[in-house]
């Protein structure tokens, strides 16, 4: 599996990812301990044994307790990555995600806290950041702007501070609905009427694209918790304006984008359709031409 990221350990190759994903628990001696640095890193899992955790590529996932974020974490772990899960609530994280996996580390973060704190949380041992955050509905009408725009911008700026040069964002179809003639699409109206959610996401996307960071912006259609019922359709930006997709597939696209150089510096829109042909990821990503 090719890995088009900045490689901090140049001796870490494709076959090692596969090999690491199948390492056996019996060879491990695991030490979990708490570490306080301000209020930030609150739990660290370390493995001491024949297989060295430091050989695994570490991915930071923001919004790791979310419905899509937790699936991204699970799939990354299954693929042999180490994961630093950025979460607001550690107790929730421990029930949502496995707290005993030595490759999983929890970091308490709020993306509205600013880039300095986020940079400290991401750390200097992270290869890529996956952002699966989304505001939680409530009384604060500015929440979409704070989380989906400024929060994501803060994460990108944090990446720049710690030299992380790979960023995967879960955004949404229709973020640029006004420009693609979908101003009166009910979904565009609904998602913007409270807090300009899609406009906020588009602002964050624009920041990422100007930042110079190697990005893949994934814009899914309506998200479903159900398992996939169709194959993935992947199109360029501002193409899809309807359709839905399983969160399992969104998570898969996010994880696979780390493996395929064809996904770099691209915005991809995804839905699933039962009548769509099954296509390999290099073909899906490769067929999207960035404007
Ligand atoms: N719903 C749809 O049909 C749809 C369609 C297209 C795109 N999307 C987008 O896809 C993404 C994932 O959606 P989802 O429904 O899977 O997400 P979700 O379940 O709503 O999870 C959102 C995540 O964001 C976290 N979060 C919220 N505010 C935060 C903050 N200030 N700091 C740090 N983390 C924060 C939440 O943390 P807590 O768990 O602590 O609350 C949670 O982990 C979102 O950006 C969403 O807008 C959704």
UniProtKB/TrEMBL annotation:
Q: Which Gene3D superfamilies is this protein grouped with? A: NAD(P)-binding Rossmann-like Domain
Annotated organism of origin? Pisum sativum (Garden pea)
- What is this protein's name? NAD(P)-binding domain-containing protein
Among SUPFAM superfamilies, the record links this protein to: NAD(P)-binding Rossmann-fold domains
Residue ranges of domain NAD(P)-binding in the record? 63-259
């Amino acid at each position: 599996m090719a890995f088009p990221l900045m490689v901090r350990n140049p001796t870490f190759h494709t076959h090692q990812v596969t090999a690491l994903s199948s390492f056996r628990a019996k060879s491990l001696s695991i030490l979990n301990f708490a570490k306080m640095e301000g209020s930030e890193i609150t739990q660290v899992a370390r493995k001491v044994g024949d297989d060295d955790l430091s050989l695994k590529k570490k991915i930071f996932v923001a919004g790791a307790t979310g419905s899509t974020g937790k699936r991204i974490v699970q799939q990354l772990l299954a693929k042999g990555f180490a994961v630093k899960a950025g979460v607001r609530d550690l107790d929730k994280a421990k029930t949502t995600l496995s707290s005993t996996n030595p490759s999983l580390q929890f970091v308490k973060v709020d993306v509205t806290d600013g880039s300095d704190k986020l940079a400290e949380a991401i750390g200097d041992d992270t290869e890529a950041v996956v952002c699966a955050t989304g505001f939680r509905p409530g009384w604060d009408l500015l929440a979409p702007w704070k989380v989906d725009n400024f929060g994501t911008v803060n994460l990108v700026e944090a990446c720049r501070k710690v030299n992380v040069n790979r960023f995967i964002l879960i955004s949404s179809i229709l973020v640029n609905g006004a420009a693609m003639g979908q101003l009166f699409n009910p979904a565009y109206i609904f998602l913007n009427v409270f807090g300009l959610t899609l406009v906020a996401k588009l602002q964050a996307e624009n920041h990422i694209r100007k930042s110079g960071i190697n990005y893949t912006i994934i814009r899914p259609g309506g998200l479903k918790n159900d398992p996939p019922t169709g194959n993935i359709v992947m199109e360029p930006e501002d193409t899809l304006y309807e359709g839905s997709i399983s969160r399992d597939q969104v998570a898969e696209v996010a994880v696979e984008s780390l493996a395929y150089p064809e996904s770099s510096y691209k915005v991809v829109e995804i839905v699933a359709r039962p009548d769509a042909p099954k296509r390999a990821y290099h073909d899906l990503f490769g067929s999207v031409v960035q404007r």
